[in-house]
């Protein structure tokens, strides 16, 4: 038997078997309506080498909207090579009095078991210790007559405050909140093989991607598991193989598998619930992977998801000192610019949080605001519009927002030339970073520099051609870019900027994400392209992409500062017109009008089924080009 050093054991009062009815007297002889207290819950946590996750884990645990006087904490920690115990103590110093009781024990001992090759090596001795501790936790909850026990891994982040309250309210014998990771990994299985291991099924992705929402019977849940101890059959639940019915189990010594089979043998169904976005989970490390390497990268990915979803990450004040600042750099580039409207402070704030997480040294580049433009200002800037241009979907001239967007990119290209900046990453402010962004960005740049001959590399875009794009010879990360929308993020060379400026695009203006494909010779509208003669831009794309939009048309929170803005009235002269010359007039009765309901936008996840027809009516033959009809977003 291993001896633990006692950190904190503070029972406040005995926990009752079931919900207590409390009555309060309003007046002599009168009684208020009985109020049921919420069931009692014991949260069981095992901690080992979780210095990087614990500040966030404890911050979100504390934020759960569940009466803390109905919650007991049971925490064990051993074989640490970091500050896990120190962090736990720091948090408990302030919060212990809030909870019904806290039982924290830890061991100071040699940092690694003699039988372990690394601290991520799972051998039978380590499994046996975990099984013993989880069985001890289960028995502790039974002994204190807790209504529920909530097994919770220390690399789970329950970001939805209603998680525990909602799970308890389901009144299921065993249920887990479905958790999201930076991969296809989650905390449930939909299938189990005859030898008790994970088996992929069609239902798994349907549940994971929220194609079907609710509570789903599954053979396995783990990492965040709520057990209803008032269900009589839960007395037969166990983590120890010796407690299973004799002769029935011949599987591995593994805590989650033994527990799942004990539920099966007891006639108890496990459930996973995806009714809410409950939170996030880290993917377990494989043998040979390190906490300081892969796991820290995964934490960055998950924290980035949180910033995307909530705008910030929850971190309690006393735990901030345990979170190191991430050193910043420019990804070996001359500069990184973020185009952002000064009035879009909320976007800028969110992006700055991403940059802090990713260690990106980024310069804010104030965008040209379409709301500050009018026909006279546009004319005074010397801007002329491409003859015959009309948006392929809207059949309208450019909007002031599109003009402002083009000018923002144009001024960055000019600045590159003025400052002799050799390679620059241009980012817009409505993007989400794909997992392992830094590592993948360095891989793309390394390949591009080794191969050479490029002017622009898309990091994020909307691919519009169904034809396969050719891989760049010698690269595992780059393809030759086809016709694409969006300028979410791209790396551009000094020579590329010069090529884009050389064509005097302000004299024949069209949207920037039409202009760039024209300049690399992959645009389906030859009539537009014919106005530009130096179409020698060599454009590649990262594959898979490194950036995607934060929102698509129709998503809650979707805002377009380009499409949902005033439109030019059509009286400005097109190229070739001037004093004494003719002018091209486009009637536009929708100036300053709100977009029509159902009107397609570039921000759509998918193009409309009749998109080829819309393009054909804009001068693009239907046989020349078909927009893809499927969503190009990566799965989690």
From TrEMBL:
Instruction: Identify the domain of life.
Output: Eukaryota
Give the signal peptide, or none: 1-28
Region (Disordered) spans which residues? 572-636
Glycosyl transferase family domain location, by residue? 335-515
Record flagged with keyword Glycosyltransferase: yes
GO molecular function list: procollagen galactosyltransferase activity
Q: Where is the composition biased (Basic and acidic residues)?
A: 623-636
Supply the alphabetized keyword list.
Glycosyltransferase, Signal, Transferase
The family annotation for this protein states: Belongs to the glycosyltransferase 25 family.
Q: What is the name of this protein?
A: Glycosyltransferase 25 family member
């Amino acid at each position: 038997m291993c001896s633990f050093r006692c950190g904190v054991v503070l029972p406040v009062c005995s926990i009752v078997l079931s919900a207590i009815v409390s009555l309060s007297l309003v007046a002599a002889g009168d009684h208020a309506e009985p109020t049921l207290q919420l069931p009692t819950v014991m949260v069981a946590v095992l901690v080992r080498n979780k210095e990087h996750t614990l500040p966030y884990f404890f911050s979100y645990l504390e934020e759960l909207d569940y009466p803390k006087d109905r919650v007991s904490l049971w925490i064990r920690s051993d074989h640490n090579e970091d500050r896990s115990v120190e962090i736990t103590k720091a948090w408990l110093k302030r919060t212990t009095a809030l909870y019904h009781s806290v039982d924290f024990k830890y061991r100071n001992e040699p940092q690694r078991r003699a039988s372990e090759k690394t601290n991520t090596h799972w051998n039978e001795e380590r499994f046996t210790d975990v099984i013993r501790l989880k069985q001890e936790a289960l028995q502790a909850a039974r002994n204190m007559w807790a209504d529920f026990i909530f097994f919770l891994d220390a690399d789970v982040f329950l970001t939805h405050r209603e998680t525990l309250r909602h799970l308890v309210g389901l009144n299921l014998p065993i249920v887990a909140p479905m958790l999201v990771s930076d991969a296809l990994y989650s905390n449930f299985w939909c299938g189990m093989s005859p030898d008790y291991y994970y088996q992929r099924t069609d239902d798994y992705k349907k549940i994971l991607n929220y194609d079907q929402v609710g509570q789903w019977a599954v053979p396995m849940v783990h990492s965040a598991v709520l057990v209803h101890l008032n269900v009589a059959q839960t007395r037969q639940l166990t983590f120890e193989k010796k407690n299973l019915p004799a002769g029935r189990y011949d599987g591995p010594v593994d805590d989650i598998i033994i527990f799942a089979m004990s539920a099966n043998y007891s006639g108890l169904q496990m459930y996973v619930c995806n009714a809410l976005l409950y939170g996030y989970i880290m993917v377990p490390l494989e043998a040979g992977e390190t906490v300081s390497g892969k796991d820290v990268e995964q934490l960055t990915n998950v924290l980035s998801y949180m910033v995307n979803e909530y705008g910030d990450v929850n971190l309690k004040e006393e735990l901030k000192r345990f979170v190191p600042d991430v050193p910043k750099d420019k990804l070996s580039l001359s500069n990184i610019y973020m185009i952002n409207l000064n009035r879009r402070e909320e976007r800028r704030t969110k992006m700055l949080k991403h940059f802090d997480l990713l260690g990106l040294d980024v310069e804010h580049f104030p965008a040209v605001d379409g709301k500050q433009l009018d026909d006279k200002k546009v004319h005074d800037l010397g801007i002329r519009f491409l003859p015959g241009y009309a948006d392929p979907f809207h059949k309208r001239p450019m909007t002031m927002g599109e003009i402002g967007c083009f000018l923002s990119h144009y001024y960055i290209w000019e600045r590159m030339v003025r400052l002799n900046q050799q390679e620059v990453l241009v980012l817009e402010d409505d993007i989400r970073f794909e997992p392992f962004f830094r590592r993948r960005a360095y891989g793309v740049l390394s390949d591009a520099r080794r191969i050479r001959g490029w002017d622009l590399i898309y990091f994020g875009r909307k691919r519009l051609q169904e034809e396969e794009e050719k891989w760049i010879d010698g690269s595992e990360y780059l393809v030759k870019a086809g016709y694409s929308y969006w300028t979410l993020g791209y790396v551009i060379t000094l020579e590329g900027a010069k090529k884009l400026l050389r064509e005097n695009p302000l004299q024949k203006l069209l949207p920037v994400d039409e202009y760039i494909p024209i300049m690399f010779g992959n645009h389906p509208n030859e009539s537009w392209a014919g106005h530009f003669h130096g179409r020698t831009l060599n454009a590649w794309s990262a594959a898979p992409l490194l950036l995607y939009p934060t929102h698509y048309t129709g998503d809650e929170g979707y805002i377009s500062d380009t499409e949902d803005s005033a439109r030019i009235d059509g009286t400005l002269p097109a190229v070739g017109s001037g004093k004494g010359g003719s002018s091209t007039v486009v009637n536009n009765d929708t100036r300053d009008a709100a977009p029509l309901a159902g009107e397609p936008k570039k921000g759509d996840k998918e193009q409309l089924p009749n998109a080829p027809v819309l393009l054909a009516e804009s001068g693009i033959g239907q046989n020349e080009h078909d927009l893809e009809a499927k969503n190009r977003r990566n799965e989690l």
